[in-house]
Write a structure and sequence with these properties.
Helix content is about 70%, strand content about 0%. It is mainly alpha-helical. It has one domain. Helix 17 (about 355-395) runs parallel beside helix 19 (about 425-440). The longest helix has about 35 residues, at about 355-395. It is globular.
């Protein structure tokens, strides 16, 4: 492109931003972000994707506005435009194919369920969120296909978690949609995620991924920075006062100990560090300690919501009530026999979600939708574990550790999903996508070749992996 065209475009962009800032400051800031993001997309999709992830982490904050959606759409356009140039990067291994096909099935079934959903406008809104989640999964699995790119995406995910904490500490306001997600807990620390329980789920995954990056850090200062980051993230988890988040953290810790193998000592040390951070906060916050220790105080009526979801699923076991239908149909199940002590969340102008991914998926899309979603979860977990074995066999212990940490991050988020309805949370799909991405980065399995005996009787060594076609 001619230099004068670049200069003209820059002047036009500056003038546009200036006018927008005078008339509408949020719009002007959004344009600044957009004009800054476009060059990143042109520079390279991995860099642009990494820049977008921290923004997506905080999509319910006033700070980012519509930037997460605009950035995702721009990434998709660039992905489509460069697909032929870079070739198909989706891993062809069985676990990756299962994850991809199961996600396609889930999206198709969600789309079909709109036809029998009671509230069509709300169903379409939920379906669009599903499409955006699927696009996020597609981008990560097809762009982060090398070890360096995977590490870049992981670092961006951790940066997003830190940015969320900073937004919460600076008191930046959250949107109405975000604060209405869980009104009973709005006084707890929710960062830029919009809800303390959702924040806790993402932070647990970030802690696990940070632990996985620790082995890749060569400089002592870099290692110290990663450890300090993990400590701060652990404190923030407890600050959310999310009981489901703490249960997920416990499950992730147990999984890390079981999967660590030769690194159990280091894993135990990092676990102790995280527990120390959590304990420090609890000692400084008696109110938080009381809430976490008392399981019937300040809750959101989850047992009632789960009971209603179970009733709904029993009435519509195969197809469900349609995407987004739980909030529409919940009020019809209040008067049925059974113990429902908290009904305001079910009969309000905007009823609460089921606070359980699995029950909500079963109630809205039936057994078909739930099995498709579970297939995606299982295939992504399997992909990360296969990647662990391949990195170990190639001698890349750092990437093997990161792949194992990704498995732990998935387990943590999927456990937290028992207490929240985060089926379309982009952070969940970024973490899930790291499984197939790591498998692609690990490359094909090394083939064991039998030694061939030369006529002279000497053994002919097999070619090293790097020399094989």
């Amino acid at each position: 492109m001619a230099p004068w065209l670049i200069a003209a475009a820059g002047l036009l962009a500056a003038a546009t931003v200036g006018v927008a800032l005078v008339r509408d400051v949020p719009l002007g800031l959004a344009l600044v972000a957009a004009f800054a993001f476009v060059p990143l997309v042109l520079l390279g999709l991995p860099v642009a994707l990494a820049a977008w992830i921290p923004v997506a982490w905080n999509e319910f904050s006033h700070v980012v506005g519509k930037a997460p959606l605009a950035g995702l759409l721009l990434l998709l356009v660039a992905w489509i435009g460069t697909r032929r140039v870079r070739g198909a990067a989706v891993a062809s291994e069985p676990s990756a194919r299962i994850a991809r096909n199961a996600l396609v099935l889930a999206l198709v079934w969600v789309t079909l369920s709109i036809s029998w959903a009671s509230g069509r406008p709300g169903a379409w809104e939920d379906a669009i969120q599903w499409y955006l989640a699927g696009a996020t999964f597609l981008l990560v699995t097809t762009i982060a296909t090398t070890p360096a790119r995977v590490r870049l995406i992981v670092a961006a995910f951790i940066a997003g978690a830190l940015a969320s904490i900073v937004i919460g500490l600076t008191g930046s306001g959250l949107s109405t949609t975000a604060t209405s997600l869980d009104l009973a807990t709005r006084q707890r620390f929710s960062g830029g995620a919009g809800d303390p329980n959702y924040l806790a789920a993402g932070l647990i995954a970030a802690i696990a991924l940070a632990a996985g990056l620790l082995s890749s850090a060569r400089d002592p200062l870099a290692k110290l920075a990663v450890i300090a980051t993990m400590f701060g993230l652990a404190v923030a988890v407890v600050a959310t006062e999310s009981r489901g988040g703490l249960i997920a953290a416990l499950m992730a810790t147990v999984a890390a100990m079981l999967l660590a193998r030769e690194r159990r000592v280091q894993t135990a040390a990092l676990g102790i560090l995280a527990i120390a951070g959590m304990t420090m906060f609890l000692l400084l916050s008696p109110a938080g300690s009381q809430r976490i220790a008392t399981f019937d105080a300040g809750g959101t009526g989850r047992t009632e919501l789960w009971l209603v979801a179970t009733r709904m699923a029993s009435d519509h076991p195969v197809a469900g009530v349609g995407v987004g239908g739980f909030e529409q149909e919940a009020r019809h199940y209040v008067l049925q026999p059974g113990s429902l002590t908290v009904v305001d969340l079910l009969v309000a102008a905007k009823p609460a979600v089921a606070h359980n991914v699995y029950l909500q998926q079963l109630a809205e899309t039936g057994v078909v939708g739930l099995l498709a979603l579970l297939a995606v979860f299982g295939a992504c977990l399997a992909a990360s574990q296969v990647a662990v074995g391949r990195f170990r066999s190639s001698g890349d212990r750092a990437m093997a550790t990161l792949a194992g940490a990704t498995t732990v991050a998935m387990i943590g988020m999927l456990t937290a999903s028992v207490f929240i309805s985060n089926s379309t949370d982009k952070r969940l799909w970024i973490v899930l996508a790291l499984g197939p991405a790591l498998l692609a980065a690990a490359g094909p399995p090394a083939r064991t070749q039998l030694s061939l005996t030369a006529p002279s009787g000497t053994a002919r060594p097999s070619a090293p992996p790097s020399a094989r076609p």
